[in-house]
Amino acid sequence: MEWKKFFLACAVGLSGFAPSARALDISKVPASDWIDLFNGKDLTNWVPKVHGTAAGQDPLQTWYVKDGLLWVDYKGYGSQFNGRFGHMAWQKRKFSYYVVHAEADNWGAQSGGAPDWAFQNNGLMLHSQSMESMDVNQDFPTSVECQLLGSMNKQNSDGKTENGTTANVCGNSSNTSMIINGTRQSPGCFTAKHVKIDSSHFQVVEALVLGDSLVKHMVAADTGKPLDTVLTYSMLQTRNDSKPLKEGYITIQGESAPWKFRKIRVLDLVGCTDSKSPSYRSYFVKSDPSLCTGTTSVNHEAPRGFSFQASAGEVRVFIPDSSPYSIRITDLFGRIVASAEVSRSGTSIPIPDFHSGLCVMDIRHGNLHYRIPLAVLGAQMDSRPQ
């Protein structure tokens, strides 16, 4: 995939990534690893929310499944849209680090009385709040919008339409801001790099989302064609309180324009980064040890004769023999703080960049696995006599 090179350049500079991130290449990911949000049959796990209507209700059948496609349709709205903006979220679970892949196309005429900016307009709402948590008259969920626009979405002064852009980012109406080109912005919509979309094909849009750290939008004219990077931004926040926006649901829109989706799927980038586990995948970029399966049972007491001393910026390890002990120290979010192979008693494991806090020490010795708590004093914290 085209974004592999970009990720290799940026991964080292972002916190919370596993070493396997440097070998990330989703072109080799088996199809079974992707999570299909749209199953091609029904709207299982999807929850609708239309302005003025409670979550879970869609009395005008804005969204439905037919012929293996997910349709956004306005035939039930009559001649006037009346500001009935809609969203539908896949709420089986939230995502934080992931790639979302959508294949979609606009069709049909816009609902009468709708705003001009909504012409051929839909979107992938990233890190979305749940539909139940929205106010009844709330237009847009708190989220970051990867805007989907049709092939003829730009209207000129003479009333004609021409090819515009797709995969823009919108944040103002959905209560978010981000860093774009070095500046924090909360755009109505920030225009992405222009990529011509052929109206005879479904457009393919992917977003690489790394918590609140980084988002990248990519576009292709159809499946099998190369993705082109059109926009990159970072440091997501909610606009009303400037809090980091780290996770949420995947949501699609209903903004007066008919659309159809043939695929919406997600590749979760959070998982087991222990290469000895059957659950390990080389593309995981954020570690979650709880997702490791098939490993040796874990002991929660240190090996007999094993001890350690933690001081500012290091942990000194004492082992009972000269056989190798594999040590890995992670913080409570699963991020690797330090690791070493120890075969000599008294070995110091440096922890230069970690602030004080509670960590977990994983010890592997032969076929045995131990996991014990560890209080670390970071190198930035000076030891002071009491």
Task: Give a brief rundown of this model.
The chain has one helix at 3-10; strands spanning 35-36, 46-50, 63-66, 69-72, 86-95, 97-106, 121-128, 144-149, 154-155, 161-162, 168-170, 176-180, 183-185, 203-210, 214-220, 228-238, 248-254, 259-268, 270-271, 286-287, 298-299, 307-311, 314-318, 325-331, 336-342, 347-350, 357-365, 368-376.
SSE order and pairing:
Elements: H1 3-10, E1 35-36, E2 46-50, E3 63-66, E4 69-72, E5 86-95, E6 97-106, E7 121-128, E8 144-149, E9 154-155, E10 161-162, E11 168-170, E12 176-180, E13 183-185, E14 203-210, E15 214-220, E16 228-238, E17 248-254, E18 259-268, E19 270-271, E20 286-287, E21 298-299, E22 307-311, E23 314-318, E24 325-331, E25 336-342, E26 347-350, E27 357-365, E28 368-376
Parallel strand pairs: 19-20, 21-28
Antiparallel strand pairs: 1-18, 2-5, 3-4, 4-18, 5-17, 6-14, 6-18, 7-8, 7-17, 8-11, 9-10, 12-13, 12-16, 14-15, 15-16, 22-23, 23-26, 24-25, 24-27, 27-28
Please explain how this structure is put together:
This protein is 2% helix and 41% strand. Strand 3 and strand 4 (69-72) form a beta hairpin. Strands 1, 3, 4, 6, 12, 13, 14, 15, 16 and 18 form a 10-stranded antiparallel β-sheet that branches. It has 386 residues and is mostly beta strands. It folds into 2 domains: 3-271, Exo-inulinase, domain 1 (Jelly Rolls, Sandwich), CATH 2.60.120; 296-376, Immunoglobulin-like (Sandwich), CATH 2.60.40. The relative contact order is 0.16. The longest helix has 8 residues, at 3-10. It is built from 1 helix and 28 strands. It has one helix at 3-10, and strands at residues 35-36, 46-50, 63-66, 69-72, 86-95, 97-106, 121-128, 144-149, 154-155, 161-162, 168-170, 176-180, 183-185, 203-210, 214-220, 228-238, 248-254, 259-268, 270-271, 286-287, 298-299, 307-311, 314-318, 325-331, 336-342, 347-350, 357-365, 368-376.
